[in-house]
Amino acid sequence: MNTFSLSLWQVSRRPLQTLTNALVMGLGVGIVVLLLLGQEQFRDRMTRDAAGIDLVVGPSGSPMQLILSSVYHADIPIGNIPWEARNIIHREPAVKRTIPLALGDNYAGFRIVGTEHAYLHLYHAELSHGRLWEHSMEAVIGATVARQTGLGMSDQFEGRHGLGEGGPRHGDHPYRVVGVLDYTGSVLDRLILTPVQSVWKAHAGHGHDHDDHHHDHGHDSGNDRDKGDLTAILVQYASPMAATRLPRVIDTQTPWQAARPAHESARLFSMLGPALGALKLFGAVLILASLLGVFALLYQSLQERRYDLAVIRAIGGGPGLIFRLTLAEGLWMVLAGLAVGLLTGHAAIGLIGLLSSEGQAMGLSGIHWANGQTMLVLGIMSAGLLVAMIPACLAARTNVARTLRRGY
Questions:
Q1: What's the rounded Cα separation, in Å, for the pair 397 and 237?
Q2: Rounded distance, CA 265 to CA 247, Å?
Q3: Secondary element (H or E) of residue 395
Q4: What backbone phi and psi angles, to 5 degrees, belong to 337?
Q5: Which of 116, 80, 302 is nearest to 195 (CA)?
Q6: What angle do CA 304, 305, 311 make, to 5 degrees?
Q7: Which helix (H) or strand (E) holds 37?
Q8: 298, 388 Cβ separation under 8 angstroms
Q9: DSSP element (H, E) containing 256
């Protein structure tokens, strides 16, 4: 029997203590792993969703709410701005491209977004089936929408007023699916995209009506007086220098506000930082407690098996063998706790991604390895080695003659 199998046998002789210690360490490791996975995937998703968007222009109010509602589609819009705002901003020399957004309706909880084809180009989206919209009341649906609602090509559906399920139907203005997008791993997967004119038409009783066959490829066509309102305008800069001037011009010279996704995302993470840090600290305390438990178990085992260790020494086992046996026992216990924690953390984030709408929206997955996990595993293994080193050294220095003479 080699060192590792013998040490594993010794650990298995104390199943209750070993299991308890593994569960305590597993809980601590699981919490930290859950936070690492969630934080990294959340940050990556936010980065992808804001890719190519330098600025968002919308009604005055909370800039973070404007970003959350218009870029990440995770909050309620502040209000509306007139179509004329898009033309004014588009004429700025510092602006390369403007993309209008019109919100207000949903289908089965998925937001219906009135926009232009350029919005798809931001995320390099490609069609899985069908084509892009050409007329009002035609819709292109994201991959997640298609999978969860069962909508397919040529299907018709009625939008509901509001951004949550349960609002009144727009029964007089059904949408028809003309295209289904491939999975992009971005916010597009859970959106229903349509021309801006579709949103205006669905709310014709509250605003303006438009011709069914109005094409939306250009950024400005027709008489502005015939156009409705927008929820927000996404802006791409023509040059990096625009970042220093354009937001200030919009904030000071117009009745609207300019919000920067990069700035607001950083502010959001700084607000979440203390809470995440507190949870990580709690996990670290549990890990430390379990490491102290490993030390206590090894030390107790040393006291109970002092005579057995002396016999091993007497029949030819050197101090090195005793040292390795005790050290291996400690490592087995640490590995058990690590295994429980890693499985728990990955399973938890996977279940959140499958069962909760927020997790699905962020695309959380348990099949992911966060950058900080490698350092976490190496750190715990190193700490486990140090903790097991003290009992291992004491075991290797067992006084053979005195122990055998005492008989315990």
A1: 71
A2: 17
A3: helix 371-396
A4: -65, -40
A5: 116
A6: 150
A7: helix 15-49
A8: yes
A9: strand 256-259
Residue 366 pLDDT greater than 80, yes or no: yes
SS3 category, 237: strand
pTM of the model: 0.77
Dig out the tokens for 159 from the structure.
């939008």
C-alpha–C-alpha distance, residues 386 and 408, integer Å? 27
How buried is 266 (Cβ within 10 angstroms: 0-12 exposed, 13-18 middle, 19+ buried)? exposed
For residue 168, count other CB atoms closer than 10 A to its CB. 9
Of 272, 232, 292, nearest in space to 68 by CA: 232
Q: Is the dihedral of CA 19, 20, 22, 23 positive or negative?
A: positive
β-strand partners of 99: 234
Residue 187 DSSP label = G
User: Are 128 and 143 contacting, i.e. CB atoms less than 8 angstroms apart?
Assistant: yes
Q: Are 159 and 204 in contact (CB under 8 A)?
A: no
**Nearest CA to 327 among 374, 385, 259?**
385
Answer yes or no: are the C-beta atoms of 181 and 203 closer than 8 Å.
Answer: no
Neighbours of 205 (CB within 10 A): 9
Q: What is the rounded CA–CA span in Å between residue 177 and residue 138?
A: 6
The residues, ordered by sequence, that sit 6+ positions from 124 with a Cβ below 8 Å of its Cβ are 184
Report how far apart, in Å, the C-alpha atoms of 268 and of each of 48, 122, 272 are.
16, 23, 6
Say whether 286 sits in a helix, a strand or coil: helix
Pair 370, 273: CB distance under 8 Å: no
pLDDT higher than 80, residue 281: yes
Give the alpha-carbon dihedral of 182, 186, 189, 194, to 10 degrees.
Answer: -100
* C-alpha 277: how far from chain center: 17
> Per DSSP, which regions of 66-147 are E strands?
81-82, 95-107, 110-115, 127-130, 138-141
What tens digit of pLDDT does each residue of 304-361 get? 666 556 556 655 566 677 788 888 888 888 899 999 999 999 999 999 988 887 787 7
Cα 279 to chain centroid distance, Å, stands at: 17
Are the beta carbons of 138 and 184 closer than 8 angstroms?
no
